[in-house]
Specification:
- The structure is a single chain.
- Helices cover 49% and strands 11% of the residues.
- With 258 residues, the protein is of the alpha/beta class.
- It folds into two domains: 148 residues, no CATH class; 89 residues, no CATH class.
- A six-stranded mixed β-sheet has the order 2-3-4-1-5-6, sandwiched between helices.
- The longest helix has 20 residues.
- The protein starts with a helix and ends with a helix.
Length: 258
């Protein structure tokens, strides 16, 4: 396809997306779109699949797979516009559902955006991240994340803890404050439309359905086969490094409506 034809195709898709999105009205708040603040290793990929499953024509596996492959990371299925990872498209707001790993301080979401995030026990989240990377290495999977994150592994979990950058170690806190400031992070979380927890995922989905009027069905994916053996001393070091994030998560929980 020529450059001109490609631009014409993109323009046609943009017009289609704008027209479809003008008709969206989600939940009692009449939201125009849903954005998932996707914290890594909290079960967020399952949540993404659940939203893609709302497109009845192809199901979640087809539309999500295409989303990972198309250059602009946008697909239209069953009159639903899905966007992934692309900050520019996310800020434009022409979608039904979008997600990314970008911290909230990197984005400028449009008004009437229903936002979701999912938190997890900090130690379990970091261990899950380590297990995922180790499984990719052991199975020689050439995943793009290994280019940056592979060198963090070192020769042991202890070396991993020394090498992983703070914004990935305390990713749940960093997603809501670039300065790792607890007060700022809590204020940003208060603006999130729906907060979930990995440990109570099904109940979180049930409440999400109530708020949005959708009919999401829980889908559980991405269970890592590799299981690291971590010493008591290693766990103690990890818990110490995550003490600020544990405090933050506890305050998030206490701030939510009962």
């Amino acid at each position: 396809m020529s450059g001109f034809a490609e631009k014409l195709k993109d323009l046609g898709e943009e017009v289609l997306c704008r027209r479809l999105c003008a008709g969206y009205s989600i939940g009692e708040g009449n939201y125009k779109r849903i954005y998932h603040i996707h914290i890594r290793k909290t079960g967020g990929t399952s949540l993404n699949y659940m939203f893609h499953a709302l497109a009845k024509n192809d199901g979640w596996s087809s539309s999500y797979a295409e989303l990972t492959q198309v250059p602009h990371h946008r697909v239209v299925r069953d009159k639903l516009v899905f966007v992934g990872w692309d900050g520019k498209l996310i800020n434009k707001g022409y979608y039904f559902y979008a997600f990314s790993h970008m911290p909230v301080h990197w984005l400028r979401l449009k008004p009437r955006t229903f936002t979701i995030t999912c938190f997890r026990d900090p130690c379990r989240r970091v261990i899950s991240h380590y297990n995922m990377l180790m499984e990719l290495v052991v199975n020689r999977v050439p995943h793009v994340c290994l280019e940056t994150e592979g060198p963090w592994l070192g020769r042991s979990f202890d070396e991993f803890l020394e090498r992983i950058p703070r914004d990935h170690l305390q990713n749940q806190l960093y997603m809501f404050s670039s300065k790792f400031d607890e007060s700022e992070a809590l204020e940003n979380v208060r603006n999130v439309s729906h907060v979930m927890f990995t440990e109570d995922f099904v109940a979180g989905v049930r409440e999400l359905n109530r708020k949005t009027g959708l009919h999401l069905e829980p889908i559980h994916t991405r269970k890592t086969g590799y299981k690291a053996e971590i010493s008591d001393a290693g766990m103690a070091r990890l818990r110490e490094k995550l003490s600020e994030e544990y405090d933050f998560i506890e305050k998030v929980k206490s701030s939510l409506p009962r």
